[in-house]
Hints:
The protein is built from six helices and 15 strands. It is α+β, with helices and mostly antiparallel strands.
Amino acid sequence: MKLLRILTNQNGISRRQAKALLAAGRVQVDGERCHDPDLDIQRFREVCVDQRIIQSAAPAYYLMLNKPSGYLSATRDDQHPTVMELIDPSLRPHVHIAGRLDRASTGLLILSSDGVWSRRLTEPAVKIPKVYRVTTAYAISPETEDRFREGIWFEYEQLRTSPASLEPLGEREVRLTIYEGRYHQVKRMFRAVGNRVTSLHRESMGGLTVDGLEPGSYRHLSAQEVSSIG
């Protein structure tokens, strides 16, 4: 929401008065003077006029979870355990899942209360690299790397995936880097070249890596990790 709207929303301040307050340097955002009426303000930022709080800052949560197999990337389910059961109950009402993994898949999962931030992490147009360790049912052919580099055509969406890179780890194992995160993208890409994924582990998203975090454990991201996603 724009700062000008926050100032005029239910605060008895007219647009004219709000602009005057901004020009006079009487408005603070997170403790700093602000003069820009068009500044986008999320609910995680505090807005004050003459030290009087107009908008309190809601707590922002950014969590990294090493998802084990067998857990659904969902808030609740009647049949299977969900990843929400792995985090503190006090956090569960505040966070959503950014970039889901299916029940059998493992690895890095991000949970956050900041929708703008998490959309940047997962939005295909932003092209943040996502790295997976993949095991397949059959030997990975030499042509697979070329096909992935060219992009795979998805008939249902009528689009071609962004170029992806493969690092061979064995006859049936690779490290795959993609830049999107579409529905079951990795499994669909291998299916398109006549193969089948038997295990899938997400190692990293951008600069966020699951290294050192035990399966089923989670931790809060550092300020540096959060800012690395923009």
